[in-house]
């Protein structure tokens, strides 16, 4: 199935759809039964760009990955484990991340500094390196598939997350595809969130870095599940240039199209993470307009979707708009309360700071849907932003009260 949208085509693809990429996963025994070790491989070194958690306790795999990318800006293989985060594990954790890199380098015959490493799971536990080494030795490009990659990176997620699109550049079909995991400890600047994106586009590293940084602020950094920023968040984009068109730079005529398509992939993955929040039953989209600039709208949007009172009201299908304007008011952004308007779906509940009479029954019926939209207008400025979150349910407490068991 394909769908045309704004100059690109949405396709039924996955992280291995772009030319030259392969991916797989397996059960190494880190977790009791689930697949827990994933791999990604490009048949040529790919231009790499990453963004990482701002948590001060940055996990060992992230440090190794960043150091490797700094050497020549390229990555050819990726290894990811779930179940153990390898965070707050001291010198031994660093050594284990390096060993994962070295084992992956040997298994796929690539340079050590062309290997990226990622981990997700329980913080403060050392990796079972005997199991990881045995698992890496069992990686098989013939029998393991990209859907196994998508499953192996999950922790408390209830489903796999993928997105793929295609665009035309100089007559060549370029594919951008991605996979992600994330369900709890989600409040990016970045959160226990991992996202890996591949493309066969030919793009200069500076342009890819510029795009990813800007797009992350419009996608992964605009989601929240529970307000916690993890130690292990990473978004990694690999562009192997297999389509061999003229290298994309900021001046290239198709650069904007590439950015638009990459934005779609990132926002789709981000929304799927929010939708799959631990215990979540609803996806909440907040649209903020009328600010002086986009950054202001982003801060207001994050305040609304991060509010536990808003999240619980949505879970209970309670049109308690007072919780929304309260979050807008404490966002730290300058607003005129007399200019603030709020809509739940198409239903206006506040107009220029004044309550609007509305049908509570109709509002409740709307809020019982699985997708809920909140529109907040704060004035006439050009600033605009979208943000995504989820409701806060009883199951969130149940899941996280027994996370280690």
Automatic annotation (TrEMBL):
The record marks 191-192 as: Cleavage. Keywords: Acyltransferase, Amino-acid biosynthesis, Arginine biosynthesis, Autocatalytic cleavage, Cytoplasm, Multifunctional enzyme, Transferase. Substrate binds at residues 155, 181, 192, 278, 400, 405. Pathway: Amino-acid biosynthesis; L-arginine biosynthesis; N(2)-acetyl-L-ornithine from L-glutamate: step 1/4; Amino-acid biosynthesis; L-arginine biosynthesis; L-ornithine and N-acetyl-L-glutamate from L-glutamate and N(2)-acetyl-L-ornithine (cyclic): step 1/1. It is found in: Cytoplasm. The active site is at 192 (nucleophile). One of its GO terms (molecular function) is L-glutamate N-acetyltransferase activity. The keyword Transit peptide does not apply. GO terms for cellular component: cytoplasm. One of its GO terms (biological process) is ornithine biosynthetic process. Heterotetramer of two alpha and two beta chains. This is Arginine biosynthesis bifunctional protein ArgJ. The gene is argJ.
């Amino acid at each position: 199935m394909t769908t045309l949208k704004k100059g690109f085509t949405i396709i039924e693809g996955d992280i291995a759809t772009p030319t030259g990429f392969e991916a797989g996963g397996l059960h190494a025994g880190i977790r009791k039964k689930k697949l827990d070790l994933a791999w990604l491989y490009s048949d040529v070194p790919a231009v790499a760009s990453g963004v990482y958690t701002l948590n001060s306790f940055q996990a060992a795999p992230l440090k190794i990955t960043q150091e490797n990318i700094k050497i020549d800006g390229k990555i050819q293989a990726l290894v990811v484990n779930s179940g153990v985060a390898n965070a707050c594990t001291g010198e031994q954790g660093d050594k284990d991340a390096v060993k994962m890199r070295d084992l992956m380098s040997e298994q796929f015959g690539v340079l050590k500094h062309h290997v990226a490493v990622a981990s997700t799971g329980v913080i403060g536990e050392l990796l079972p390196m005997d199991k990881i080494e045995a698992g890496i030795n069992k990686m098989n490009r013939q029998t393991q598939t990209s859907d196994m990659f998508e499953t192996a990176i999950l922790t408390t997620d209830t489903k796999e997350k993928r997105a793929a699109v295609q665009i035309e550049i100089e007559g060549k079909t370029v594919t951008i595809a991605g996979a992600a995991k994330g369900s709890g400890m989600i409040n990016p600047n970045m959160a226990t969130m991992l996202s890996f994106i591949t493309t066969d586009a030919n793009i200069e590293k500076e342009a890819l870095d510029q795009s990813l940084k800007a797009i992350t602020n419009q996608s992964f950094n605009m989601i929240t599940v529970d307000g916690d920023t993890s130690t292990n968040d990473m978004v990694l984009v690999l562009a192997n240039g297999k389509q061999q068109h003229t290298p994309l730079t900021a001046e290239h005529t198709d650069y904007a199209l590439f950015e638009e398509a990459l934005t779609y992939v990132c926002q789709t993955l981000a929304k799927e993470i929010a939708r799959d929040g631990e215990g979540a039953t609803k996806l909440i989209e907040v649209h903020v307009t009328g600010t002086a600039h986009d950054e202001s709208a982003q801060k207001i949007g994050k305040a609304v979707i991060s509010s536990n009172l808003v999240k619980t009201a949505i879970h209970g299908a309670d049109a308690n708009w007072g919780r929304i304007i309260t979050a807008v008011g404490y966002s730290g952004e300058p607003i005129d309360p007399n200019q603030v308007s709020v809509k739940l779906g198409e239903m206006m509940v506040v107009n220029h700071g004044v309550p609007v009479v509305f049908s509570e029954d109709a509002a409740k019926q709307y809020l019982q849907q699985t997708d809920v939209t909140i529109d907040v207008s704060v004035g006439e400025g050009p600033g605009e932003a979208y943000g995504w979150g989820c409701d806060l349910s009883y199951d969130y407490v149940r899941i996280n009260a027994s996370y280690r068991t």
